[in-house]
């Protein structure tokens, strides 16, 4: 998967969420909590935010990254990575509600993997939607 992604790099916050954004009510005025920041592909940030928001940010992210090379392909690949990482995280900590969460994550990851393989096989770089691929809790949620 990584071999098929372009070498685009920049500053990535790596935990973009409502809790880490400052706003004046109409626009983002700042971002806090940079402890997990890294140098990587900014589309990874978009995939992670979209997965964790249950697809809520899909439209905004599509508008922001749609002119970038292979944006749809990158968003799909990174969303699959984030989903698998969440699956690993929740399996490791074994928290309450694990069985339901694991089943949901497995379904979503399976659908993403199927979509990824179809895109790879067809060598298609058309619009790929990850909206709604994640609809439940993220790290730190009750």
Structure write-up:
- The chain has helices at residues 42-52, 58-65, 71-93, 98-122, and strands at residues 10-12, 21-23, 28-31, 38-40.
- The protein has 142 residues and is mainly alpha-helical.
- Strands 1-4 form a two-stranded antiparallel ribbon. Strands 2-3 form a two-stranded antiparallel ribbon.
- Helix 1 packs across helix 3 and helix 3 (71-93) runs antiparallel to helix 4.
- Residues 5-65 form the Aminoglycoside phosphotransferase domain.
- This is Aminoglycoside phosphotransferase domain-containing protein.
- InterPro entries: Aminoglycoside_PTrfase, Kinase-like_dom_sf.
Instruction: Give the CATH level 1 class.
Output: Alpha Beta
**Residue runs with pLDDT of under 50 for 5 or more positions:** 124-142
- Which class do the helix and strand fractions yield? mainly alpha
Fraction of residues in helix: 40-55%
The amount of beta strand, in percent, is: 5-15%
pLDDT averaged residue by residue: 76
Strand order of the largest sheet: 1-4
Calculate the terminal CA-CA distance, rounded to whole Å. Answer: 32 Å
Tell me the major beta sheet.
2 strands, antiparallel
What is the CATH architecture descriptor? Alpha-Beta Complex
CATH topology: Aminoglycoside 3'-phosphotransferase, Chain: A, domain 2
CATH homologous superfamily descriptor: Aminoglycoside phosphotransferase (APH), C-terminal lobe
Classify the oligomer: single chain
User: What is the overall shape?
Assistant: globular
Protein name: Aminoglycoside phosphotransferase domain-containing protein
Organism: Deinococcus daejeonensis
């Amino acid at each position: 998967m990584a071999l098929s992604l372009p070498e685009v790099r920049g500053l990535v916050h790596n935990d973009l969420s409502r809790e880490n954004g400052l706003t004046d009510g109409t626009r983002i005025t700042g971002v806090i909590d940079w402890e997990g920041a890294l140098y990587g592909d900014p589309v990874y940030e978009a995939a992670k935010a979209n997965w964790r928001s249950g697809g809520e940010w899909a439209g905004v992210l599509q508008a922001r990254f749609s002119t970038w090379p292979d944006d749809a392909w990158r968003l799909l690949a990174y969303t699959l990575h984030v989903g698998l990482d969440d699956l690993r995280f929740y399996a490791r900590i074994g928290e309450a509600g694990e069985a339901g969460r694991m089943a949901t994550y497995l379904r979503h990851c399976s659908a993403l993997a199927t979509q990824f393989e179809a895109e790879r096989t067809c060598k298609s770089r058309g619009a790929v939607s990850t909206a709604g691929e994640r609809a439940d809790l993220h790290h730190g949620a009750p």
